[in-house]
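Discrete fold record:
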Amino acid sequence: MPSWSEFATAEPELATAIRALLQQYGPGMAYLATVREDGGPRVHPVSPVITNDGLYCFLVDSAKRRDLERDGRYALHSYPPEESDDEAYLTGVAHPVTDPAVIAHLADALHASPAVDWRLFELTVDTAMLRRHGPAGALPLAMSLRFPPITLTWHAPAPSDGASPPSVSLAVPLRGRKGASASEPTGGGLPGRHPSDEGGVGAVARLAM
């Protein structure tokens, strides 16, 4: 499964926008969803760490850490911004970091106390999603046809088919007016993409309406 750096290389604009939401208050802030032993979901606030090499999280001895040690599947959702309802979402698998150099470097950079029982995890990226809600916000009944919400989603290639490139899907509702075109600018931060455009490392953009 791709690392954050591999995802960012494939889709730099999307990665930059997601990183901005995760770090909008300075340090990384997000909600981490893990799988409990009984199969149910568990959600906790965490402080993800994004570097040029990967996406990491320091976890003290806790229920969420034990969840990831047993089942590494996770979902990460950004905190809501103060000025909009935009959101970022990642899924993947978390792995304990075993490289002493990486652990020492991040522990020193983040001032992680050796007196605390923490463990460093790297979060790989299977799916990355960015949703821009526009001026109307996330309320469905308030959605404006002039400023429709836009969702951009990246999917990692299937492990069994290394020849298949990652895919990027852009979903935006129809404008509801004569002459509206899927290739028109969509606003919302990241530009819309025409189905014939190519992005990233051979990534394919497609409109889902």
